[in-house]
Amino acid sequence: MSFVPSLRLVRTAAIALLLVSVPLAATPASAATSLAAASSAHVYLLRGVLNIFSLGLDDIAERLRAQGIPVTIANFISWSSLADEAAAEYRSGRTKTIILVGHSSGATALPDMVARLTELGTPVQLAIGLDSVFRTSLNGRVGKYINFYVANGAGTPVAKGGSFQGSLENVNVQDVPGVGHLTIEKNQIMQQTVISAIDAVVFSRGNGIQRSSSQAMVTRRGPRTAAVRN
């Protein structure tokens, strides 16, 4: 008698595998090259309300720092001053690669931070939102903006604004095991996905996540958990 797994189990396994299989950047030619690339990047992590619901960002920060990547972690209300700080670092030449990550209200603030940095003439290579709690639109310029959201919870897609330039991808992760609004940034699959995307930009100086992950989700998952490329 053959064993036929449930459709939901197959779907859950597929989405988990697709998330963790985000391609990593090629290995740098030397340790010196790797260190230089890491030290010239800066990742800004924005927490949600009260600094008590986004503690998984601390784990991401620790793992990035272990690779030599400078990290600033702060509450989302600091997004404007952080944008000014990032722009000053970019103008000085100390920072060449700027990456933004936000959870909950921190994800909601990301479009404002992207727009502010664009006004300041500062490029953002990658921005990753983790379950923004309000519907937002994205203006300004960013190499790649990825919005991971939980469609059956608090999360919503991000829309393109009229002045947006770059790549926007909305990815519904409601079927990733253990993922909800208060756990998305703590979930190991999601943490690895975020770190892999950051590494791809920092060490390849490329444009972030390659197409395979979300495109495959569209093909295998159908509209319920599809990634939407804009």
What does this molecule look like?
- With 230 residues, the chain is α/β, with parallel strands linked by helices.
- Helix content is 39%, strand content 23%.
- It contains seven helices and nine strands.
- It has a seven-stranded mixed β-sheet with strand order 2-1-3-4-6-8-9, with helices on both faces. A two-stranded parallel sheet has the order 5-7.
- Helix 1 (7-20) runs antiparallel to helix 7, helix 3 runs parallel beside helix 6 (188-204) and helix 4 crosses helix 5.
- The protein is globular and about 45 Å long.
- The N and C termini lie far apart (45 Å).
Radius of gyration: 17 Å
* Succession of helices and strands: HHEHEHEHEEEEEHHE
* Overall mean confidence score, pLDDT: 83
Tally of individual helices: 7
Task: Report the portion of residues in β strands.
Answer: 15-25%
Proportion in helices: 25-40%
**Major sheet size, sense and barrel closure:** 7 strands, mixed
Q: Give the name of the CATH architecture.
A: 3-Layer(aba) Sandwich
Number of domains: 1
CATH topology annotation: Rossmann fold
**Stretches with pLDDT under 50, minimum 5 residues:** 1-5, 20-29, 206-230
Termini separation comes to: 45 Å
SSE blueprint and pairings:
Elements (H helix, E strand, L loop, with lengths): L6 H14 L10 H9 L1 E7 L8 H11 L4 E5 L3 H14 L4 E7 L1 H15 L4 E7 L5 E3 L2 E9 L8 E3 L4 E8 L15 H17 L7 H10 L5 E3 L1
Parallel strand pairs: 1-2, 1-3, 3-4, 4-6, 5-7, 6-8
Antiparallel strand pairs: 8-9
Which features characterize this protein?
seven-stranded mixed beta sheet, alpha/beta, two-stranded parallel ribbon, 7 helices, Rossmann fold, 230 residues
